[in-house]
């Protein structure tokens, strides 16, 4: 995508050069025309190569190909007759600029007098310097007072205060929810430099807090109900969730001191704010919350306190929607504390939550070589499998089945117990949503009779069956496919049109060949006579029977 190829700093500097080259008061007509071309969709096929923007712009029935140099704005060119920057060049730049920030903000800045703009830039720079100095001072203060817990809490509070002040300077007036998110991810968060692997614990912790602040802001922005913007919002949250998780993973690798532990304890109230986000981002919220308590907040005392807090919060809430985040949190921390019974009791009544948690708890137990514990978690899922399946929305049932079957594979590998009968019973209980998986299982196990019975149960015709399956059954026991052909022939006859009748005749020929190979021609004669009698009112079909010499 274009926006991933545009260096934000380069675009910002290019914008400053354009503003200086084209003062708004003197060039307002040209700027307005360029803005109109961009807003009305006349700019397209935009690419960037070697810091040069290229694209096409349609204007008054003609197509022009401007070339905008980001580092040498004055050297830009266009296929129109204008000398220097033209409306097409500016429109091309506005199109690209929209990928990193709102064009409306650029236009408003453009309109401001130069003296006012310089003063604003100077003030913003001073604020950034002040915030940085305050943070450095707080860090130094923390290093000097390692045993003082309150000071450690103060430094974390100072960080978040500085984040909030910086956030307030983001221009958010009259923009969509999706653009709000985009500015957070692409403009706000990148200002916090990612620490190297050799950086101190404190540097990594500061970066984690900046990531958490940004994530919390993201998940508090309501998601559109549907459409392109809703998809983009989900993508922003999903991708940034991975960023937060990576930052936490890096932090967990750093050695800690007693002072650092106090800083982590001061972090807990901010971590809890994650749970208050929009439920539409619940999966990403839990992912971030859980990895914090798995990798960073590992002190058992902290976890005990967190579990108590989460249960207290869910008891205070009135609706299920309000309770769900705290149920998920309390269940997960209970599992980390080894209290599996409480972890299960909390989530058991909620199919969506229970499915994800149980499978994850099973995986985590197996990963720690706690085989019996993991097996117990799978048994809990297994005993609820039908209840959960039919409690879910019909569109989510295939997702559930795949989750369960994948969990069984992990269970089988970890316990080194094949138990094919148990797996088959599970497939049967998950029908019809496990149909294709069950078909493959029966084929692999060469259970030909059960395979044909399952096909017939689903009212499958011969034409719907994989040729490899059909051929294997015929070679193993030709008599097994006879009922399937009978069912297929009746299916086509009931369509009552000539093309369907022709399909029925084709299968009748195959069926006759099977009866002949089995040396059961008397049964064939009885069958075809009865079929001809049943369809005697279907003249077109009767004609085809005669032409095929069936009667």
TrEMBL record:
It comes from the Bacteria. Keywords: Metal-binding, Zinc, Zinc-finger. It comes from Anoxybacillus ayderensis. Residues 117-149 are annotated as: Disordered. Residues 131-140 have a biased composition (Low complexity). GO terms for molecular function: zinc ion binding. This is SWIM-type domain-containing protein. PROSITE patterns: ZF_SWIM (PS50966). Residues 117-130 have a biased composition (Basic and acidic residues). Residues 64-97 form the SWIM-type domain.
């Amino acid at each position: 995508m274009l926006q991933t190829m545009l260096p934000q700093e380069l675009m910002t500097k290019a914008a400053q050069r354009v503003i200086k080259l084209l003062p708004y008061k003197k060039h307002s007509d040209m700027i307005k025309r360029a803005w109109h071309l961009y807003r009305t969709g006349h700019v397209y096929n935009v690419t960037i190569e070697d810091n040069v923007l290229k694209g096409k712009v349609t204007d008054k029935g003609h197509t022009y190909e401007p070339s905008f140099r980001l580092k040498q704005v004055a050297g830009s060119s266009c296929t129109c007759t204008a000398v220097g920057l033209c409306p097409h060049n500016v429109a091309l730049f506005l199109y690209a600029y929209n990928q990193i920030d709102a064009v409306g903000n650029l236009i408003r800045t453009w309109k401001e007098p130069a003296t006012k703009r310089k003063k604003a830039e100077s003030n913003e720079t001073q604020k950034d310097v002040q915030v940085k100095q305050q943070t450095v001072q707080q860090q130094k203060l923390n290093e000097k007072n390692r045993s003082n817990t309150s000071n450690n809490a103060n430094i974390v509070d100072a960080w978040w205060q500085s984040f909030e002040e910086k956030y307030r300077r983001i221009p958010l007036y009259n923009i969509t929810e999706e653009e709000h998110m985009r500015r957070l991810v692409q403009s706000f968060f990148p200002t916090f430099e990612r620490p190297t692997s050799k950086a101190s614990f404190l540097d990594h912790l500061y970066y984690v807090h900046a990531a958490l602040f940004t994530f919390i802001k993201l998940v508090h922005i309501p998601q559109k109900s549907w459409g392109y913007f809703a998809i983009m919002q989900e993508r922003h949250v999903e991708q940034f969730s991975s960023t937060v998780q990576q930052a936490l993973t890096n932090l967990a690798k750093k050695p800690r001191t007693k002072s650092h532990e106090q800083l982590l304890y001061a972090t807990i109230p901010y971590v809890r704010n994650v749970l208050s986000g929009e439920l539409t981002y619940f999966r990403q919220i839990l992912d971030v919350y859980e990895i914090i308590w798995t990798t960073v907040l590992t002190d058992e005392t902290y976890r005990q306190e967190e579990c108590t807090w989460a249960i207290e919060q869910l008891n205070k809430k009135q609706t299920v929607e309000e309770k769900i985040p705290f149920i998920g949190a309390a269940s997960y921390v209970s599992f980390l504390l080894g209290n599996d019974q409480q972890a299960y009791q909390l989530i058991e009544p909620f199919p969506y939550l229970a499915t994800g948690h149980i499978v994850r708890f099973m995986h985590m137990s197996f990963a720690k070589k706690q085989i019996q514990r993991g097996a117990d978690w799978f048994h809990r899922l297994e005993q609820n499998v039908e209840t959960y399946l039919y409690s879910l929305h019909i569109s989510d049932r295939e997702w559930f089945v795949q989750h369960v079957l994948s969990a069984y594979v992990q269970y089988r590998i970890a316990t080194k117990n094949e138990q094919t009968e148990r797996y088959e019973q599970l497939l049967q209980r998950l029908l019809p949503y496990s149909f294709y998986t069950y078909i493959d299982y029966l084929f692999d196990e060469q259970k030909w009779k059960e395979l044909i019975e399952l096909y017939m149960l689903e009212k499958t015709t011969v034409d719907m069956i994989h040729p490899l399956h059909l051929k294997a059954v015929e070679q193993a026991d030709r008599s097994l496919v006879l009922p399937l052909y009978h069912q297929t022939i009746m299916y086509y006859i009931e369509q009552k049109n000539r093309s369907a009748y022709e399909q029925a005749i084709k299968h009748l020929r195959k069926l006759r060949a099977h009866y002949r190979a089995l040396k059961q021609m008397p049964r064939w004669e009885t069958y075809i006579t009865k079929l001809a009698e049943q369809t005697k009112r279907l003249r077109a079909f009767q004609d085809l029977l005669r032409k095929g010499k069936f009667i």
